TrEMBL record:
Name of the protein in question: NADP-dependent succinic semialdehyde dehydrogenase
SUPFAM superfamilies: ALDH-like
Recorded superkingdom: Bacteria
Family, per entry: Belongs to the aldehyde dehydrogenase family.
InterPro entries, alphabetized: Ald_DH/histidinol_DH, Ald_DH_C, Ald_DH_N, Aldehyde_DH_dom, ALDH_GabD1-like, GABD/Sad-like
Record-linked Gene3D superfamilies: Aldehyde Dehydrogenase, Chain A, domain 1, Aldehyde Dehydrogenase, Chain A, domain 2
Keyword list, A-Z: NADP, Oxidoreductase
Transmembrane stretches, start-end: none
The Aldehyde dehydrogenase domain, residue ranges: 3-459
Pfam families, sorted: Aldedh
Length: 471
């Protein structure tokens, strides 16, 4: 894949970039290692000040960087602005909370005595340079939600961003440089995916985090496994969206439209499978389809656009194949299912709803990365949960019901890293984020996220430091 900025709304190549050669990669790895040696000894106050400065700069740059993001990957400009604002919030959150989240932990005096010690505590120390392999769909947020906690913990970061967002990748490196981070603390590596293995195997790289597809995750995790290096994987999702009779159906349908089409339908935590109780199926379906049809598809730079183009020609072709396969196997297309005639250039696709979906269709098993929803009619909550869990993925899930027993049941039984009740999945700095099954492992955000790339160190004393050991 070439490293290039190609506008998905027009298909025009705006700029191409040379990938880094071996010598330049070597220099950057060495800088990451050297920077770590001093940066790891800095205090939380110093790290927080740097991160707050980066947040202030990003806040000032909001409009410009939002336009860059929209130009490179096609999300509506309002969503790009919101993404930048979310990053600023997360940076400030970690600047404020990291010290508390990584405070020393003290076992009880009885346990210390039982261990034969006189004193003991657990300290969270940084690991070293961490490689982040990141996707294009939230090109600022995915990076910041790794970088803010990793840097606050005292690690240094190496970013291998997706090849279609090089301007955003270079902006991020420059952001941390302008904020005053010492050279080497955060660097962008403009490299293709083929060069990732070499970087990951380098002994100076301590760990890796990857957000992306299942094949990319498998490849990075197997190399890291071979090197015995820690990884966090945030992979794909096919999140269920359960609608049960006691729910506010109008609200559930309205939120369903946003949950499916946010980010032009290219979000790992977008609701993708809509599993609706038969008593409210017709009502929900009518409202949902009306909402999908009402969306404005068009120029992502236009403030009034709801859905822009898909990020690449390949991405649209993959989506089209999934819809065609479903159609061939008997799915009913309730709306969309084609390219909009109004936008012949660019990689647009109409918001689409498929009904009569069966397990033999690819859309039942695979992730639809675009504005395509699948509908399922179920008889009761048991069947709803069965359909919801009938997937290889387990990222998040959404449930609409006012019945507390049903809410509890879903919180217990849905196989996912999140259960969002009467709302749609959305990440927040204070809430852990991540999946189970083929959606990956490890967590980002919250205290769980910042501790992923820490050496959890037991410090144990056999004799009080001021008492000489007995002869
Ligand atoms: P992708 O093709 O897997 O790419 C993600 C990143 O991995 C890119 O930087 C890519 O580099 C790199 N990459 C691809 N193959 C690789 C390999 N074999 N070895 C090393 N690196 C490799 O995914 P995408 O199309 O950009 O993103 C969409 C996927 O990401 C979807 O499945 C989505 O659900 C998932 N996602 C998950 C989360 C989450 O939090 N769970 C969040 C967002 C997205 P190149 O661009 O150079 O190929």
């Amino acid at each position: 894949m070439p490293i290039a900025t190609i506008n998905p709304a027009t298909g025009e190549t705006l700029q191409t970039f040379e990938s880094l050669g071996a010598e330049e990669i070597e220099k950057r790895l060495e800088r990451a290692r050297t920077a770590f040696e001093t940066y790891r000894t800095t205090g939380f106050d110093e790290r927080a000040e740097l991160l707050r400065r980066a947040a202030d700069l990003l806040e000032k740059d909001q409009e410009d960087i939002a336009r860059t993001v929209t130009t490179e990957m096609g999300k509506p400009i309002a969503a790009a602005r919101a993404e930048a604002a979310k990053c600023v919030k997360a940076m400030r959150w970690y600047a404020e909370h990291a010290e508390g989240l990584l405070a020393d932990e003290h076992p009880s005096p009885a346990d210390v005595e039982d261990s034969g010690g006189t004193k003991a505590y657990v300290r969270y120390r940084p690991l070293g340079p961490v490689l982040a392999v990141m996707p294009w769909n939230f090109p600022l947020w995915q990076v910041i939600r790794f970088a803010a906690p990793a840097l606050m913990a005292g690690n240094t970061g190496l970013l291998k961003h997706a090849s279609n967002v090089p301007r955003t990748a270079l902006y991020l490196e420059d952001l941390f440089r302008r904020a005053g981070y010492p050279e080497g603390c955060f660097q962008t590596l403009l490299i293709g995916s083929g060069a990732v293995e070499g970087v990951l195997r380098d002994p100076r790289v301590a760990a890796a985090t990857l957000t992306g597809s299942e094949p990319a995750g498998r490849s990075v995790a197997s190399v890291a496994g071979d090197e015995i290096k820690k990884t966090v994987l945030e992979l794909g999702g096919s999140d269920p969206y359960l609608v049960l009779p006691s729910a506010d159906i109008a609200r559930a349908a309205e939120v369903a439209v946003t949950a499916r089409t946010q980010n032009n339908g290219q979000s790992c935590i977008a609701a993708k499978r809509f599993i609706v109780h038969r008593d409210v199926y017709d009502e929900f379906t009518r409202l949902f389809v009306d909402g999908m049809k009402a969306l404005k598809v068009g120029d992502p730079m236009d403030d009034s656009t709801d859905v822009g183009p898909l990020s690449s020609e390949r991405g649209r072709a993959d989506l089209e194949e999934l819809v065609e396969d479903a159609r061939k196997h008997g799915a009913t297309v309730l709306c969309g299912g084609r390219r909009p005639a109004s936008h012949p250039a660019g990689w647009f696709y109409e918001p689409t709803v498929l009904a009569d979906v069966t397990p033999r269709m690819r859309v039942h098993r695979e992730e639809t990365f675009g504005p395509v929803a699948t509908l399922y009619k179920v008889a009761d909550l048991d069947q709803a949960i069965e359909v919801a869990n009938d997937t290889a993925f387990g990222l998040s899930s959404n449930v609409w019901t006012r019945d507390e027993e049903e809410q509890e049941r879903c919180a217990r039984d849905l196989q996912a890293g999140g259960v969002y009740i009467n709302g749609m999945t959305a990440s927040h700095p204070a809430m852990p984020f991540g999946g189970v099954k083929r959606s990956g492992y490890g967590r980002e955000l919250s205290g769980h996220g910042i501790r992923e790339f820490c050496n959890v160190t037991t410090v144990w004393y056999g004799t009080p430091p001021d008492v000489p050991a007995a002869e």
